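The data are set out underneath:

___
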Amino acid sequence: MHGQARQSRPPGSERCGPAGIPSGCWRPCSCTGRIEIKDIDLRQHTELLFPGSRFRDIGLMDRVAVFRSALAPENSLIDPNCAYMKFWDTVVGLCLVFIGFVTPYEVVFVGPLAFDSWLFIANRVIDAIFVKDIVMQFFLKVRVIRGGKPTRSLLRDPKTIRWMYLTSWFPIDVVGVMQFDLLFFITGGSRALQGAKFLRMLRLLRLIKLLRFLRASRLVNRWQTYVHVSHFTKNMLKFLVALLVSSHWMACFW
């Protein structure tokens, strides 16, 4: 036991007891992650905490301290399976529903919004949610993809996670949260910018917000790991959602 220690676990769970050490029951990982399952060297950690001692020679409480130190996460990352991420994915999903149905209507039928209008305020709240989501992506553990499908293995290296996000979804996410509606207020609503050309340009810029809808693919990939439905049901739901959204968009832009 004083050599290399390795513990196995069900995907998305960690084994821990009241003192933060392995015990006999499994429970879901917490978002903050006071412990993280990994390979540990008990001899090395015992030497760091109790110089000159061996793991088998120290007392029970000292062993607890060694386990707690060895299993402590090296980086503050968010587990995609934790309860908070499930709640957050639901919030982002509701925002995507709002964008999918309200934004096309706004692009076609609504001109520059008043600063105190409910639609302007709602858009700013949703913008803040998506900005927070962008920040969270830099700290979110990523599922390893093999054969084009996400696995249950999680990538835990912060540099790799951030580089992958910067070179993939980050540019799209940033463009999607650009505040084009604020252009009208920054310019003071001048008459020159209230003409037909400006209104058409503003409407075209609002279309960029639909890029946020691409986030749905990431949400679906995460939902599939903890919502178990049949392949037929999943495909039917995708078809119905695509049919409903496309019908609404065609009705607005026709």
Summary: Confidence is low (pLDDT under 50) at residues 1-35. DSSP finds ten helices and six strands in the chain.
